[in-house]
């Protein structure tokens, strides 16, 4: 069964993925910052029991707890965007439940009792929200979430009060970056109640010209309106990016750079992650403007994730030295780019 990062969806030339994250807390427990070890264990037990019910059978959830998981397993989940970077901080009372095809993850005892996340490829806000909302409703029936008629869902951090929802779109914006438009767009988004962040969300830097755009406002606004706002703005950014790409396609230096990037990926013997992210960004751009063939967006999405350090270690089933990582990454690219042609 294909994972979300092994596929390409709508607007795949610009949009990599859509994520919906819901913050929820169980009414009968205090917020995580006030819980003792016994309470944290009880929360995990309650959620595990709820997910064992027949209505969740089709998701085939697996459980990975912080006590038994190793750092490679946990950090590879971050690289697949299945858990937050904060989730990896050592804590034996943290647990994550993952659906069979990795489109649903449920983080337990992070900042809130539950961080429910749904992921889909491409621009798919409505479908992704529906997937998250279905599980959210079923869990609420079993667990009873903390909710106030005026404040909405109660969360440990006040900035999540209300819907408790963060909707995010992951975008590849090399043309807007090269045209010097990213800072202007980022400033404009703040005024619209949105924010632009790096590849792994809050506090992370963009790599490979990949950015995340998310809603900031959760209080005093419905999920439907928040999703519509994000969708409308994303479509505008897609149009701007595509227009800038048309101009870049006329630039012989840009096309030459794309050609050279394909050459390096075909023949490199060692390839560090920073260099790889820059090169694969140029390849994705080259595919979108029609100057390369022999590779698709779904393959680019897949190898971008599978070339990350802890994903390579997970595949190798051992910890790898930096030079071994760079060699493994280069070998993977040599194979994937064997049939790629520059037009």
Strand and helix layout:
Elements: E1 15-24, H1 37-51, E2 62-65, H2 71-79, E3 95-98, E4 104-108, E5 114-121, H3 125-143, E6 147-148, E7 152-153, E8 165-172, H4 174-178, H5 182-191, E9 194-197, E10 210-215, H6 223-248, H7 252-267, H8 273-288, E11 292-293, H9 297-306, H10 309-316, H11 322-336, E12 341-342
Antiparallel strand pairs: 1-5, 1-8, 2-3, 3-4, 4-5, 6-7, 8-10, 9-10, 11-12
Give the strand content: 15-25%
The description of the largest β-sheet is: 8 strands, antiparallel
What is the mean pLDDT? 93
* Number of β-strand runs: 12
Please report the distance between the alpha carbons of the first and last residues.
33 Å
What does the overall shape look like? Answer: globular
Report the radius of gyration as a whole number of Å: 21 Å
Structural class, by secondary structure, is alpha+beta
Give me the side-by-side strand order of the main sheet: 2-3-4-5-1-8-10-9
Q: Which regions have little confidence, pLDDT < 50, spanning 5+ residues?
A: none
How helix-rich are the residues, as a percent range?
A: 40-55%
N-to-C SSE string, H for helix and E for strand: EHEHEEEHEEEHHEEHHHEHHHE
Total of DSSP H or I helical runs spanning 4+ residues: 11
């Amino acid at each position: 069964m294909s994972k979300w990062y092994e596929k390409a969806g709508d607007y795949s030339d610009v949009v990599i993925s859509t994520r919906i994250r819901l913050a929820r807390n169980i009414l009968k427990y205090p917020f995580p910052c006030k819980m003792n070890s016994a309470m944290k264990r009880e929360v995990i037990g309650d959620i595990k029991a709820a997910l064992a019910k027949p209505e969740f059978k089709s998701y085939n959830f697996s459980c990975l707890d912080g006590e038994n998981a190793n750092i490679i397993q946990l950090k590879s989940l971050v690289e697949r965007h299945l858990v937050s970077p904060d989730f990896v901080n050592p804590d034996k009372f943290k647990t994550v439940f993952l659906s069979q095809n990795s489109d649903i993850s449920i983080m337990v005892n992070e900042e809130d009792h539950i961080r429910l996340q749904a992921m889909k490829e491409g621009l798919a806000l409505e479908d992704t929200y529906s997937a998250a909302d279905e599980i959210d409703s079923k869990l609420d029936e079993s667990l009873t979430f903390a909710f106030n008629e005026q404040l909405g869902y109660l969360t440990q951090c006040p900035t999540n009060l209300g819907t408790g929802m963060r909707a995010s779109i992951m975008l590849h914006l090399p043309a807007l970056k090269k045209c010097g438009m990213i800072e202007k767009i980022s400033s404009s988004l703040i005024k619209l109640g949105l924010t632009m962040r790096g590849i792994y969300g809050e506090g992370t830097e963009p790599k490979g010209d990949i950015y995340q755009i998310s809603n900031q406002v959760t209080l005093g606004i419905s999920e439907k309106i928040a999703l519509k706002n994000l969708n409308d703005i994303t479509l505008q950014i897609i149009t701007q990016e595509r227009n800038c790409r048309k101009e870049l396609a006329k630039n012989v230096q840009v096309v030459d750079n794309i050609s050279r990037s394909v050459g390096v990926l075909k023949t490199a013997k060692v390839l560090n992650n920073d260099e790889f992210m820059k090169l694969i960004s140029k390849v994705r751009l080259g595919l979108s403007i029609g100057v390369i063939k022999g590779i698709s967006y779904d393959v680019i999405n897949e190898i971008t994730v599978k070339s990350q350090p802890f994903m390579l270690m997970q595949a190798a089933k051992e910890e790898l030295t930096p030079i071994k990582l760079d060699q493994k990454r280069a070998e993977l690219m040599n194979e994937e780019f064997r049939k790629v042609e520059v037009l």
